[in-house]
Design goal:
Layout lengths: L12 E3 L8 H7 L9 H18 L5 E4 L3 H12 L5 E5 L3 H12 L3 E5 L13 H10 L5 E7 L1 E2 L4 E2 L2 H10 L5 E5 L18 E5 L11 E5 L1 H9 L9 H8 L10 H17 L1 H22 L2 E2 L11 E5 L6 H12 L1 E5 L8 E5 L6 H17 L8 H11 L11
Parallel strand pairs: 1-13, 3-4, 3-5, 5-8, 8-9
Antiparallel strand pairs: 2-10, 6-7, 9-10, 11-12, 12-14, 13-14
Helix pairs in contact: 1-9, 2-9, 5-6, 9-10, 10-12, 10-13, 11-12, 12-13
The chain binds pyridoxal-5'-phosphate.
């Protein structure tokens, strides 16, 4: 039975790969009184966040902010750039890539789904050579866009986006490049301009440490150009009017004022720490987590070490173990939420989120909860993963003084 008055002692460990825990600084910022979204103060807030978010996407071009979840920004990316019946090439990295493809079908686009076969295919990243071969075969340029997921949140695989751009260019193909980094942004390095991405989709509730509710489209000049002739119906999602009004820090409709306070605070926090420090912190915690999984004698969902995700780690269960039962034990005994296996890997793995507002001791508590939960669930554990992770973290400490931007 749902009991909204359920508040056990201590804090809940929200270790799913999004929504991630919201730091107190951000919660306090969100609690400021709502202001007039047409008044003078609002314009200053709007300009600050619209400019600051470009630093996170590493772009000089406009970033559109929607009062919507990431799924809305997916729709915006497709509906602004494509026309009914257009063919797009998508790559099956996991559950989120599959959902984006379903959306394309719903919108009347024709997605072609490339991928490695079977459940095993979900253990690898985007194969740029397969994209290049397909584009070379498309001499008539029927394919209008290539759509890939940067950090596949259902598996813990972070694909090489620069390699996808190189593949498109090597094939001499004019297709746009659309990328979902909803769970990668502000946790894994991302370079919208340098990697030649046309539309980057992201959201608030993952690396940016905000509650769910706002999402983004970073758009290249080519994407804007494509939007002038794209014929999919759109109104709320249309870039042109929003970008025009954003010039002065305002929106054509009521934006999520309080979440924008939160975004302003999140940008301060990330830039105070320094983007490179944020990325290094995620890499280090992810490595400690993987050492724990290996010590337990369990397999990591991502089978290719060159594309391990710094955001989350997928932990595969031995045959005959239901990962959702293990997750339920951990939730009931230790008040911790872990990510479920989705789609093809439902019940076969669980996901440990180590993104956003996460430090050494957050991770250690998380791993301790996992280790106890595995034992309670009767999963044979070879050795202590918490000890393996502690040894790695202790041998690779970074003084707090060096964790702040110079
Ligand atoms: C979370 C997520 C989504 C969906 O975003 P919502 O905010 O739930 O709509 C899409 N793609 C990826 C990779 C995600 O991690």
């Amino acid at each position: 039975m749902l009991n909204l008055n359920f508040h056990p002692a201590g804090r809940h460990f929200l270790q799913i790969p999004g929504p991630s825990p919201v730091p107190d600084r951000i919660l306090r910022a969100i609690s400021y009184p709502t202001i007039d979204h047409r008044g003078p103060e609002f314009g200053a807030l709007g300009l600050k966040v619209l400019d600051g978010i470009k630093t996170i996407f590493k772009t000089e071009h406009p970033v559109v902010i929607y009062p919507a979840s990431g799924t809305g920004a997916w729709e915006a990316a497709l509906s602004n750039t494509l026309s009914p019946g257009d063919t797009v090439l998508m790559f099956e990295t996991g559950h989120f890539a599959t959902l984006w493809k379903k959306m394309a079908e719903n919108l009347g686009i024709r997605p072609e789904f490339l991928g490695l076969p079977g459940v095993e295919g979900w253990r690898h990243g985007v194969q740029a050579d397969m994209i290049e071969a397909r584009l070379r075969a498309d001499a008539a340029h029927a394919i209008k866009a290539v759509c890939v997921v940067h950090n596949e949140t259902s598996t813990g695989v972070t694909s090489d986006i620069a390699a996808v751009r190189r593949a498109i260019d090597a094939a001499g193909h004019p297709a746009l490049l659309l990328v979902d980094t909803i769970s990668g942004l502000a946790s894994a390095d991302y370079c919208h301009d340098e990697w030649g991405v046309d539309v980057t989709v992201s959201g608030s509730q993952k690396g940016l440490m905000l509650p769910p509710g706002i999402s983004f489209n970073a758009v290249s000049p080519r994407a804007i150009e494509a939007s002038r002739s794209a014929r999919l119906p759109r109104s709320f999602w249309g870039w042109n009017e929003i970008i025009e009004m954003n010039r002065t820090g305002y929106w054509p409709y009521t934006p999520s004022t309080n979440l924008l306070y939160g975004l302003s605070e999140a940008l301060d926090m990330i830039l105070e720490e320094g983007l490179d420090n944020v990325f290094a912190r995620h890499q280090r915690l992810a490595e400690a987590c993987r050492r724990a999984v290996r010590a337990w004698g369990l397999e990591i969902q991502c089978a290719d070490p060159s594309v391990y995700s710094p955001v989350l780690t997928g932990v595969m269960m031995p045959d005959g173990v239901d990962a959702d039962v293990v997750r339920r034990h951990i939730y009931e005994r230790f008040n911790m939420s872990l990510g479920a296996g989705l789609g093809k890997v439902k019940g076969r793995m669980f996901r440990i989120g180590h993104l956003g507002d996460c430090n050494d001791l957050t991770l250690m508590a998380t791993l301790a909860g996992c280790e106890m939960g595995l034992k309670i669930s009767g999963v044979p554990v070879a050795a202590s993963g918490t000890v393996a992770a502690m040894e790695y973290l202790a041998a690779h400490t970074v003084p707090l003084s060096l964790q702040a931007a110079a």
